[in-house]
Write a structure and sequence with these properties.
The protein is mainly beta. It is built from one helix and ten strands. A five-stranded antiparallel beta sheet has the order 5-6-1-8-9, with no helix packed on it. Strands 2, 3, 4, 7 and 10 form a five-stranded antiparallel beta sheet that branches.
């Protein structure tokens, strides 16, 4: 009798794990791994910025633009709760790395208008959970996330 109860209990635990929507890839956002969805969101108060950097699905560093003499242009806009217009871009992918690195940065273009009132921010998400958020302001603003 006890054996039957234990077998039933074990089967129930396995079934709940399989059908609960929780997969091994979404178990821990602190240590992302293969199968986890990684998202970077880069935001600025100006459409043209110096560069963005992030780790890709294989844990390799990527930067845009690749040519340091060029600048990155953000095309997506939104109005913040403060009433100002912001520009943004994002990168989303499914990790292919057992030990996924998550991190990036955005650097403002100090030559935008010479005023030095740059604002940039960077956010990271693992499986929809925000894991990092940083912002920076000023002429050479760089936000690391």
């Amino acid at each position: 009798m006890l054996k039957r109860v234990l077998v039933t209990l074990a089967s129930t635990v396995v079934a709940l794990g399989l059908f609960s929507g929780v997969s091994p890839a979404s178990a821990d956002v602190e240590f992302p791994t293969s199968g986890d969805v990684i998202k970077y969101v880069f935001v600025s108060n100006k459409p043209i910025n110096d560069s963005i950097y992030w780790y890709d699905a294989y844990g390799d560093g990527q930067s845009f633009p690749e040519d340091p003499s060029q600048r990155v242009r953000f095309n997506n806009t939104f109005v913040g709760t403060d009433g100002h217009t912001y520009w943004s871009t994002s990168r989303t992918f499914t990790s292919r790395s057992t030990y996924q690195l998550v991190g990036g940065y955005i650097s403002a273009d100090y030559e935008n208008d010479g005023s030095g009132n740059n604002y940039v921010r960077c956010s990271t998400f693992v499986n929809g959970v925000q894991t990092s958020f940083e912002y920076a302001e000023g002429r050479y603003a760089t936000a690391y996330c």
